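Intended use. Records like the one below are meant for learning the mapping from a protein sequence to its folded structure. Do not use them to infer anything beyond what is encoded.
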Amino acid sequence: MYSRCGNVSKAREIFDLMEEKNIVAWTAMISGYGMHGHGNQALELFSEMRVRGPRPNSVTFVAILSACAHAGLVNDGRQIFASLRQEYGLVPSVEHQVCMVDMLGRAGHLNEAYQFIKDIPKEPAPAVWTAMLGACKMHKNFDLGVEVAEHLLSLEPENPGHYVMLSNIYALAGRMDRVEKVRNIMIRNRLKKEVGYSTTDVDQKVYLFSMGDKSHPETNQIYLYLDELMSRCREAGYIPASESVMHEVEEEEREHALRYHSEKLAIAFGLLKTGPGVPIRIIKNLRMCEDCHTAIKHISVIADREINVRDRLRFHHFKDGSCSCRDYW
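Structure written out for the chain above:
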């Protein structure tokens, strides 16, 4: 609970107070370190567990491989994956395979990740290909990305996320004819992308925001404050990452679309409604985009606040212009 709520130090305090630690406790603590980007601490705890704790199980290996992926600990991850079968006699599951492809892909080892997939005895699960596709987009490998996306669509033709990712890859490559084709397929099949939203709690009440949201009674104040924040960010050197939105819109429209992402609105509201020094906590249902990540680093300096964001993949702790992920996520 403490890990998922953003306080991994408190989680470790509770863990250390436990007289008897079972496999669930060890795995939960390793997973907590992983989701906060503390890969080295996760490795240390895993090593301790192997010496004096319970025998690691399949779920434990998922937690530690995920921790390695989020921290860029590729060599450690390779060794741990090898020990899964060699030392513990466990058969790699889909979750282990996804972690390995994610880890290799994030680190830029796209060829190794692709070869890993091809070496899987049975047809790899769609989740494995999805991890590969995300890596292709991250490192702008358009040719391989298109190949992977088209294979994914043959496996899951009704999954709108795959179409969105393929459309984004085509857009980054400047293939707007292909972008239009993909979007027409989505429209024809009545497929819609998942809506992003962010929540924040103020005075023990949860507030939800979506991109361009104007449903809040204090919308005008929130937007005015956010506009002021972003202007000050630009003065401090922030440049909108226009690649985070589709390329067929004009530059001014791109910046407008980026400015009112749900997490920015939630942060503006949190800053307006809380006093100096109070940390802002945000939960986002999707992966945070590059632009929001950059903007929030600037906001943490301008507002002199600690801002904690938990997105679909992990925690980001922003303070004094930097993020705990060290821009690796």
